[in-house]
Amino acid sequence: MNAGRVKIERKSADIVIVGGGTAGCFAAVTIKEMCPSADVLVVEKAHVKRSGCLAAGVNAINAYLGPGETPESYLDYVKRDSAGLVREDLVLSIGQRLNRVTEKLESWGLPFLKDESGRYKFRGKRSVEINGEHIKPVIASALRRSGAGILNRAVATNYVVKDGRAAGVFAFSAREEKFYVISAKAVICAAGGAAGIYRPNNGGPARHKMWYCPFNVGTGFAMGLRAGAEMTTFEMRFIALRIKDVLSPTGTVVQGVKARQINALGEEYLNRYGSDSTPVRLYATVEENKAGRGPCYLDLTGLPDSDNSRLKEAYLNMSPGIVLKWADEGVEPNGKPLEICGSEPYVVGGHGQAGYWVDSRRRTTLEGLFAAGDAAGGAPKKYVSGCLAEGEIAALAALEYIRGIEVPAAGDQEVAAELGRVFEPLGRQKGAAPDDYEERLQKIMDEYAGGISANYELSGPKLLIARELLRELQDEISANISAGDMHELVKAHEVIDRALVARVLVEHLLYRKETRWRSYQERVDYPVRDDRRWLVFVNSVYDGETKNIRIIERPWKGLG
Amino acid sequence: MAVRVNRSLCNGCGDMAEPMCVAVCPGDLLYRDESNRCAVRDWRDCWDCAACVKECPRQAIEMFLPVQIGGRGSTLTARSGRGRITWKLTRPDGKEEIFEIINQTFNEVK
C-alpha cells in the first residue's frame, strides 16, 4: 500500500504501558498513586473496560494466603507444583503482596463472598470466592480515576529502541490508517501471553472456544524478541484441564464443590500417578484416555439440588458457555458427569513461567523495559492477584528508573521503516489471508510440536521438522500475508507475532532434553526428569537480522 | 462460540459515536452496519466472553452454542443494572431461568 497516506500521530509519556489488562492497569494506578505528576499512557489493543483474560470475569482469586499460609509457604507450593524449577526471588516477591493487592480490589468495589464472621470464603488454602463478572470494569474504573492516559484500539507492534534502551512504542489504530509513535522514558510490557499457537480443540465456528483469551497472541513476547530481549522457559507450556467442548474452567467444581475426578470405569484415577500437581492432573487424564479408560469426568452427581443454581451463577461470573451446555443437554449440573479434556497449549507467564527474563524488580534485559503478569517469566501460578503484584513491582521500578531521564524521540528513519513493515500487508494483491496462515501455523504445531492430536507428546525428530516448517512459514508470511482492511491488518500482525513465538517455543522444546513437567513438556525421547543436569533455566535471544534464535542456559539459584 | 444481534431490538445505540457492544468487544468483532444496527463481523472469532451481551442497553444481543459443539437453541441475554447483572437463560423449549448477581459494591463512592 501507499504508506504515505497513513497519518502519523506522535505522542509522549514518562512511562508507557503496553497492555491494559490486570498487570498493566495496576501498574498505571500504582504509578499515579506514588507520583501523581507522572505522565502515564496505557496502550490497549481492545478497550480497557473488557480486554484480555478478564473480559468474561473470574469467580475466584486463586492466589490469596489463607490462615496459616505465608509468602514462604506459597513459594514452597509453587516450587513443588513446578517440579522444583522456579525463580524463587520472583515468586516470593509476589507472595509478599498477594493479600494486600487482593484487598485493594475489594476496596475498588469487587464483591467478595463472606462467611458468617465476615471473612473471605475460601475454596482451598489459597483461593477466595468472588462475584467477579465485573472485575475488569472495576479495574478499568480505578484506572480512569487514577488519571492515567488510555489509548484504546491501538495495536502495539514494536518498541522504539534508542541508544540500546526501550524509549517508547510503535502502534497503529485498529480503526483507521493511523500510526502512533509514542516516546517514553520507560516502557512496561504487560501485553499478556499467547494463545492460538496450536490448533484449538474445536473447529469451524467454535474455533475460538478456548480457555485463554484468543486475542492475546504473544505480541508482547514478539516485540521483546525483535528488540533483542532475553526470554525464559517458553518450554513450560500451560495446558489447561477443562470441560470438554465449552472449555470452561474446572476449579469451580473441583475445589468449589469437591467433584470426584473419575475415568469411564468410575475409578478415581489421580492416585495412580504419584503427584497431584497441576501438570499431573492433566497428564493423568491423557494417560487414562491412552489406556482405553477414558473419557474422564468430573462427577457432580452427588451434589444436592440446592447447589445447582449456585454453580450456574458461579459460571455466569466467568464462563457462561457451560450454563448453555447444561440447558442444551436438558440437565442440571448434578444430572450428569462433566467430561473433561486438555486445552491446546499456551505460552503464558501467569500459569506457566514463559516470558521475559526479569530481575527481582521486573527489569528485562533491555534497559528501560520492564515486564509484568503473563508477559514476565519465571514465576508460575500468579493468577489475577500475582499479576497485580507484579504490576506494582514493575511500576515502582520504572518510576525509580525514569528519574533524571529525558524523553527521547524516535528517528525519522526508524519511524519510516516500522510504518512500512506494519502497513505492508494492507492491500497486498497477492498472497494469503491471516486466517490461512494461522491454520497452517496451528497444523504444524499440533502435529509436530506436541498439540492435542499428539497427546501433547514431544520428540526430537518431530520438533526438527517443526523447526524447518516454521522457518519457511515465517518467511512466507513476511512476503505474502495480505489484509483487506484494518481488522485484517490486526489479524495479520497477530499471525506474524504468533509465528515468531512458535519458533522460539520449538527451540526451547528441542533444548530441554529431559521431561520436567508432564504433558506441558513431555519428551518421549527423554522421558526422565534430570535435576542434576537440568535444574537450569532455558533462555533465548532472537537476532532480527539473521532470524536465528540463540539458546542461553542460566543456572537455577535458590534463595539460599 | 457465538453471539447474534436481534435486529428488531438493536437501534445501533442511536447517536452515540460508537455503540457500547462495538466499543467493548475484545476481538473488535462488532460493527455498525449501513442500516445503523450492529452486526457481528466474524462470529467464528467470538470468545464467549459476553462483554457485548452485558453492555447492550436493549438486550439485543444473545449468546448461544454453535451446533458444531452441541448447541440446540438455548440462549443467554443479560441486563446490567447499577451493581448487579440479571441473566436470562432461555431453553430450547422456551422455559426461562433468571439469575440476579451482585457484581459491584461501589465501595469507591463512599
Can you describe this structure?
The complex is a heterodimer of chains A (560) and B (110). Among the domains of chain A are: 241-342, Flavocytochrome C3, Chain A, domain 1, CATH 3.90.700; 423-555, Methane Monooxygenase Hydroxylase, Chain G, domain 1 (Up-down Bundle), CATH 1.20.58. Chain A is 35% helix and 17% strand. Chain A has helices spanning 22-34, 71-81, 88-95, 98-107, 135-146, 219-226, 251-254, 278-290, 308-316, 321-329, 383-401, 412-423, 434-448, 460-480, 486-511, 531-534; strands at 7-18, 40-43, 60-61, 128-129, 149-151, 154-162, 165-173, 178-189, 231-232, 241-243, 260-262, 296-299, 338-342, 355-356, 369-371, 457-458, 522-523, 536-543, 548-555. In chain A, strands 1, 2, 5, 6, 7, 8 and 15 form a 7-stranded mixed beta sheet that branches. In chain A, strands 14-9-18-19 form a 4-stranded antiparallel beta sheet. A 4-stranded antiparallel beta sheet of chain A has the order 10-13-12-11, covered by helices on one side. In chain A, strand 18 (536-543) and strand 19 form a beta hairpin. Chain B has a single domain, classed as 2-Layer Sandwich (Alpha-Beta Plaits). Chain B is globular, with a radius of gyration of 15 Å. Chains A and B meet through helix 5, helix 9 and helix 10 of A and helix 2, strand 6 and strand 7 of B. Chain A: It comes from Pelotomaculum thermopropionicum (strain DSM 13744 / JCM 10971 / SI). Chain A: Residues 439-554 form the Fumarate reductase/succinate dehydrogenase flavoprotein-like C-terminal domain.
Task: Summarize the helices and strands and which ones pair or pack.
The complex is a heterodimer of chains A (560) and B (110).
Chain A: E1 7-18, H1 22-34, E2 40-43, E3 60-61, H2 71-81, H3 88-95, H4 98-107, E4 128-129, H5 135-146, E5 149-151, E6 154-162, E7 165-173, E8 178-189, H6 219-226, E9 231-232, E10 241-243, H7 251-254, E11 260-262, H8 278-290, E12 296-299, H9 308-316, H10 321-329, E13 338-342, E14 355-356, E15 369-371, H11 383-401, H12 412-423, H13 434-448, E16 457-458, H14 460-480, H15 486-511, E17 522-523, H16 531-534, E18 536-543, E19 548-555
Parallel strand pairs in A: 1-2, 1-8, 2-5, 8-15, 16-17
Antiparallel strand pairs in A: 3-4, 6-7, 7-8, 9-14, 9-18, 10-13, 11-12, 12-13, 18-19
Helix pairs in contact in A: 1-5, 1-11, 2-3, 4-11, 6-15, 13-14, 13-15, 14-15
Chain B: E1 2-5, H1 20-24, E2 30-32, E3 38-40, H2 51-55, E4 61-64, E5 75-81, E6 84-90, E7 96-102
Antiparallel strand pairs in B: 1-4, 2-3, 5-6, 6-7
Protein name (chain B): Ferredoxin
InterPro entries (chain B): 4Fe4S_Fe-S-bd (IPR017896), 4Fe4S_Fe_S_CS (IPR017900)
GO molecular function, one term (chain B): metal ion binding
